[in-house]
From TrEMBL:
<feature type="transmembrane region" description="Helical">
    <location>
        <begin position="126"/>
        <end position="147"/>
    </location>
</feature>
<feature type="transmembrane region" description="Helical">
    <location>
        <begin position="315"/>
        <end position="343"/>
    </location>
</feature>
<feature type="transmembrane region" description="Helical">
    <location>
        <begin position="454"/>
        <end position="472"/>
    </location>
</feature>
<dbReference type="InterPro" id="IPR018212">
    <property type="entry name" value="Na/solute_symporter_CS"/>
</dbReference>
<feature type="transmembrane region" description="Helical">
    <location>
        <begin position="423"/>
        <end position="442"/>
    </location>
</feature>
<feature type="transmembrane region" description="Helical">
    <location>
        <begin position="75"/>
        <end position="92"/>
    </location>
</feature>
<comment type="function">
    <text>Catalyzes the sodium-dependent uptake of extracellular L-proline.</text>
</comment>
<dbReference type="InterPro" id="IPR011851">
    <property type="entry name" value="Na/Pro_symporter"/>
</dbReference>
<feature type="transmembrane region" description="Helical">
    <location>
        <begin position="159"/>
        <end position="182"/>
    </location>
</feature>
<keyword id="KW-0739">Sodium transport</keyword>
<keyword id="KW-0769">Symport</keyword>
<keyword id="KW-0997">Cell inner membrane</keyword>
<feature type="transmembrane region" description="Helical">
    <location>
        <begin position="364"/>
        <end position="386"/>
    </location>
</feature>
<dbReference type="Pfam" id="PF00474">
    <property type="entry name" value="SSF"/>
</dbReference>
<dbReference type="GO" id="GO:0015824">
    <property type="term" value="P:proline transport"/>
</dbReference>
<feature type="transmembrane region" description="Helical">
    <location>
        <begin position="276"/>
        <end position="295"/>
    </location>
</feature>
<keyword id="KW-0029">Amino-acid transport</keyword>
Amino acid sequence: METGTILALGIYFIAMLAIGLYAYRQSSSNLSEYMLGGRKLGPAVTALSAGASDMSGWLLMGLPGALYLMGISQVWMAVGLVIGAWLNYLLLAPRFRVFTELAKDSITLPDYLENRFDDHTRMLRLISAVVIVVFFTLYTASGVVAGGKLFESVFGMDYLFGLVLTAGVVIAYTLLGGFLAVSMTDFVQGIIMFLALVLVPVVALDVVGGVTPVIDIVAELNPNHLDIFTGTSALGIVSLMAWGLGYFGQPHIIVRFMAIRSVKDFPVARRIGMSWMIVSLLGAVATGFIGIAYIKQTGGELKDPETIFIVMSQALFHPFITGFLLAALLAAVMSTISSQLLVTSSALVQDFYKTFFNKTASDSHLVLMGRVSVFLVALVAILIALDRSSSILGLVSNAWAGFGAAFGPLVLISLYWRRMNQWGALAGMIAGAVTVLVWIYGPFTVNGQTMDQWLYAMVPGVVASALAIVIVSKLTAAPKVAIAGQFDQMCKLMKQA
């Protein structure tokens, strides 16, 4: 590896650790500060933190690789994600920010569910926390695997070394600074990802001679690559766009909305977040598409389509710049890992340890336990990641569908329907999660395809969850007057905002 590349990556790692140390000095006095940054994030940090924790390595490797291999028809997933993210900002974010504070200053999703429905049985907290811990531990492991394989394939390092290095830096700044460190590092990582996805396709486009040569070469190699409907069906398009439904139920994304300093900041955050997302997705699409012409013109050979961003980064730029471009890949992986670690840690501390084992624990003790939890969850994830055959894409897809179906309709309907009660919430969460699991792992097929291949599990999961919420809430007693009054107060505050 070139010295300049190593130097750039070293600067990146040091910067992440420095941010963690700064955040440690700013936000470690109590659990709310450690888990939510004291609800004082600005709109820019909120927006880029949500975007960076969302996209992961899929943005720089998966999407460009899909465009390179299968053509423009793969943009349907990006279209679905843009629509889902925009609706998340518009429909969920402001009300969720207000309601989580009204509901006894809830600082985790299970916290909110228990307080929103005044659930004295604690079943909502327990089941939602179990879902978060199990899925996010595996989700975190997939990110650690990606980091290990990245160092191995790009830098020629030992897989185990790359795995431990990636996890070690993330553990350090997350353990030190908690939510504020994660959000601030996500902000920096989001900027790096944005610049990389603008710089690489622009320079590559100049090298190949402009838009016309790219279209001509792609048409010559495979005309179907220019057809947005080639290789997919109506159900296929629905499945790809259904990824956007998942945004309403992703704990590591919606927790950002709980932490913004004011509901009045959301319009600015939405403009920043959506601009970042659209430009980044266009950059990823352009990278894969221009990459087809670049490889053809240079006479190169691309063994793995998902490495097109890496190949062009190494070929087109000075080693020092290449280092920062490759740091964008690490940023995509690390920003998601850190967010997942913190959400899992908060579930373990707030929703298990404090609730069931130590109700009188002091804030300083809970912060300490939060740091211990971050380390333990990361350690389990590393142990899982030692198996190099671990599936990354499949695990991410399944977890995204699971969270989207279990929590998406539950959270969204809870913000808009006064009549919803705890039994409807519990039924919806269970119905969504179980439907996804059966759809993915059940022994059913359609025309020789598994159910998940025929139609993404998110779709039936969300439908089942929404129906269960409405039917069970209607068949059981209406919520207490105090709970309904809390909902009315949220609506009143939203009108004032």
